[in-house]
Amino acid sequence: MAEPKEAPYGSWKSPITSDLIVSESIKIVEIALDGEDTYWIESRPSERGRCVVVRRSPDGNRTDVTPVPFNVRTRVHEYGGGSFVVTDGTVYFSNFSDQRLYRQDSDAQPRPITPEADLRYADGVIDQRHGRLIYVREDHTDPDREAVNTLVALGLDGMDGGKVLVSGNDFYSSPRLSPDGSRLAWLTWNHPNMPWDGTKLWVSEIREDGSLGHSQRVAGGVDESIFQPEWSPDGILHFVSDRTGWWNLYRRRDGRDEPLCQMEAEFGLPQWVFGMSTYAFQSADRIICAYTQQGVWHLASIDTASGELSAIETPYTSIGSLRAAPGRLVFLAASPTETTSLVQVNLATHELEVLRRSSKVQVDPGYLSRPRPIEFPTERDLRAHAFFYPPNNRDYAAQQGEKPPLLVISHGGPTAATSSKFTLLIQYWTSRGIAVLDVNYGGSTGYGRAYRQRLDNNWGIVDVDDCTNGARYLVERGQVDPERLIIRGGSAGGYTTLCALTFRDVFQVGASYYGVGELEALAKDTHKFESRYLDRLIGPYPERRDIYQERSPINHIARLSCPVIFFQGLEDKVVPPSQAETMVSALHKKGVPVAYIPFEGEQHGFRRAENIKRVLDAELYFYGKTLGFELAEPVEPVPIENL
Predict the structure, then answer these.
(1) Pairing assessment for the beta strands 237-241 and 248-253 based on DSSP bridges
(2) N or C: lower Cβ tally within 10 Å for the chain?
(3) Could you tell me if 204 and 215 are in contact, meaning their C-beta atoms sit under 8 angstroms apart?
(4) Is residue 524 in some structural domain?
(5) 218 and 234 share one domain
(6) Are residues 121 and 255 in the same domain?
(7) Taking a C-beta distance cutoff of 8 angstroms, is the pair 408, 471 a contact?
(8) Considering 224, 248, 276, which residue would you say is the last residue of a domain?
(9) Are 181 and 173 in contact (CB under 8 A)?
(10) CA dist list (Å): 267 to 248, 278, 553
(11) Domain co-membership, 465 together with 329
């Protein structure tokens, strides 16, 4: 091997190109088991983000189920999830373009089973006893009112419009039938709560005619978050609750809630999408579960009689979407060196088999950076968490005395979390000589309810403090260049980015992906699911309009004097394009270097290969121009105003 060449950080030539990242890459979501067959959804950038149901038979044969042009994706809550269900080879799915439900029998073309109307469906279950589907429905037919969410029953052959089973709450999720079909469980919550703030778990008997009897609230409340209700094979209701401050597993038996395995760990997740799963039943006596501690996920089994938890060793640090059947478990997993994969476990031998990888790309380890979990001091004598990725490229060495630029990533949500799973999007930066700090700021999930609630009334403060203090921590340790600090984020992370650039004097440049610049506009012009989210994060609107104005970067452009690049989908209903356009116009008038790249046909998040490639290269180009390092290879230039 040749000796490493000396070159400035940021100017290292990397084999991890934007073309490599989008080539043969997919996103795997939503697993379902049907007999011995395994189903999942693949989101394919090469097909302009089309989501396809794929079936794998026991012999390993893999086939696309949904044909072109069908795109299996629901827009309930805008973020979707729970887009399909399957039984005996028949798939029921939501089609993105018209949001109708379709039935696809084996070897047949899909046919619609809901009427042409502005109705959306998610998180369905099949009620075999009554020959119907039970779905969460979101009704947008009246443009003069807020969308109406209900639980509805639909005939398996459809076109009956659906019969409302439960109504009256702002939100519903997780309708789940008992094994004998005699009882239905579901979750509800109401404004201003989000599902990780407080939900209620309900159970009702199902009458012979299919209507519901008296509904009983069995768990949850405005200050207790219930996650993933499931019935065991012997008909006992299980669920995850954070009543102790940690999302732990419980079961409802003889009118009482029994904890199964209490520990300071999270067995739950924030329900940004439908159909999330952190546990599944191998049998009535054994639960297979995933839980996270200190940002690392673990796989285990629980004996339901004793409550004993036994580890199942895997090489993975990110685990989710568990589905089990007798003898096998299928889930999504990743590690610091393995991209997200669909994995099957033989539950008798614990032997692992990778069924599908999200990327076929193989990269020499000499070009990869391994994440280092760090804990650092922040405001109020607290500590925050992050993953640090130092630059690494076997072909290059730093110039004498030079320290690398640092790219701080602020994740979205903000009630979400980053993990240590391998992603080429981070290695794209580190292999070019740019260090990365991926921050789980206060408010992030995975560290208990108290950590999650640090952001209550403090969005734009705690998250910004933690991102800036993480950068300062690395500067003080001599690991990064204090004059080349970058921050970037998407959605809520874009808001944190813009706040950090506006209200702190730490970063020299930033990138906002469909980020929030004006909180008032977000409060008045966003979708139902998040329309009251800011009540908890900021304060009630319009009563606390003063705080909204105070914490909106657009109102303090005089304090923003460093370069920013904005990326925006023009069909974004979560953070409308006007947010980015207003910020760009203000910075342009002020004379601050600014770039804006909008994308037709993209919503909240970019799904098309050509656009993913464009934003990566454009962001690198922008940093090179504003921080003064030469790129190893030419990329498509970006028009930068005021540079």
Answers:
(1) antiparallel
(2) N
(3) yes
(4) yes
(5) yes
(6) yes
(7) yes
(8) 276
(9) no
(10) 5, 6, 36
(11) no
Nearest to 220 by CA among 265, 180, 174: 174
Q: State both tokens at 261.
A: 């395995």
Question: Both 577 and 443 in a single domain?
Answer: yes
Contact predicate 297/291, CB 8 Å: yes
Tell me, yes or no, whether 130 lies in a domain: yes
- Does residue 262 sit in the same domain as residue 312? no
- How far apart CA 408 and CA 389 sit, in angstroms, is 10
Overall domain count for the chain: 3
Whether 294 and 398 map to the same domain: the answer is no
Note whether 489 and 583 are same-domain residues: yes
Q: How confident is the model at residue 627 (pLDDT cuts 50, 70, 90)?
A: very high
Q: Report yes or no: 387 and 418 within 8 Å, Cβ to Cβ.
A: yes
Q: Which domain holds residue 102?
A: 29-276
Are 227 and 284 contained in the same domain? no
Q: Say how many residues make up the chain.
A: 643
DSSP 397: E
pLDDT digits (tens, 9 = 90+) for 529-564: 999 999 999 999 999 999 999 999 999 999 999 999
pTM of the model: 0.93
Range list of β-strands (E), 57-162: 62-64, 84-87, 90-94, 101-104, 111-112, 119-127, 132-139, 148-155
Own/partner contacts of 223-227, CB < 8 Å, gap of 24 or more, are: 223/197, 223/198, 224/198, 224/199, 225/195, 225/196, 225/197, 225/198, 225/199, 225/268, 225/449, 226/187, 226/199, 226/200, 226/201, 227/195, 227/199, 227/267, 227/268, 227/269, 227/271, 227/276, 227/278
CATH number of the domain at 592, please: 3.40.50.1820
- Which pLDDT belongs to residue 148? 98
Peptide bond into 69 cis (omega under 30): yes
Cβ burial of 575 (10 Å; 0-12, 13-18, 19+) is: buried
Question: What integer is the mean pLDDT of 40-60?
Answer: 94
Contacts of 362 (CB under 8 A, 6+ apart): none
pLDDT above 90 covers a percentage of the chain that reads 92
Token couple for 245: 């401050």
Nearest of 314, 266, 313 to residue 292 by alpha carbon: 266
Tell me if residue 51 falls in helix, strand or coil.
strand
Q: Quote the CA–CA distance of 91 and 64 in Å, as a whole number.
A: 12
Residues forming beta bridges with residue 407, ordered by sequence position? 436, 486
Read off the pLDDT of residues 286-324 as tens digits, 9 standing for 90 and up. 999 999 998 999 999 999 999 899 999 999 999 999 999
- In the listed set 318, 343, 362, which residue is the last one of a domain according to the structure? 362
Average model confidence (pLDDT) across the chain? 95
Segment 177-181 mean pLDDT: 97
Q: Give the residue from 304, 288, 306 showing the smallest Cα distance to 350.
A: 288
Instruction: Write the pLDDT tens digit of every residue in 22-38.
Output: 887 899 999 999 999 99
Mean pLDDT of 93-113: 96
445: CB partners within 8 A, 6+ apart: 196, 266, 269, 270, 413, 415, 416, 417, 452
pLDDT at residue 3 tops 90: no
Report the candidate in 364, 423, 359, 337 with the shortest Cα–Cα distance to residue 46.
359
Answer yes or no: is 21 within a domain.
no
Q: Does residue 425 lie within any of the structural domains?
A: yes
